[in-house]
Amino acid sequence: IVTKDLPSVSAAKVPVFKDLELVTVTPAIRAERRLGTDRGALIFRISDVATRQTGLQPGDVIVGINNTRIADAAEAGQVIERLRGSNGFRLFFERGRRILFTDLYF
């Protein structure tokens, strides 16, 4: 038997600030995590401080920011970086096959 890392563990991580690492949702990650969405940015790691401030958790999938549908981790990181210092933004995410949202302010 040969063991391998799960797809989300071996996927390329996209750091966003110092508190967040994202991974692009792929068919393998979708199957591994039993996700409803077929694209977006899986939160692979988030600091405890960021979780308390935002309500986001590891395993949540960012699917939209404001009126922009998020295709992958790189796009999510770019949009979040671009909105840093703005009046805030609405982040849509999947958790447990439900779409939820949170308003973030930096």
Task: Give me the secondary-structure topology.
Blueprint: H1 7-10, E1 14-16, E2 20-24, H2 27-33, E3 41-46, H3 48-54, E4 61-65, E5 68-69, H4 73-83, E6 89-95, E7 98-104
Antiparallel strand pairs: 1-2, 2-3, 3-4, 4-5, 4-6, 6-7
List keywords for this structure.
106 residues, alpha+beta, 7-stranded antiparallel β-sheet, 4 helices, 7 strands, 33% strand, globular
Description:
With 106 residues, the chain is an alpha+beta fold. Helix content is 27%, strand content 33%. It is built from 4 helices and 7 strands. The chain has helices at 7-10, 27-33, 48-54, 73-83, and strands at residues 14-16, 20-24, 41-46, 61-65, 68-69, 89-95, 98-104. Strands 1, 2, 3, 4, 5, 6 and 7 form a 7-stranded antiparallel sheet that branches. The radius of gyration is 13 Å and the shape is globular. The mean pLDDT is 92.
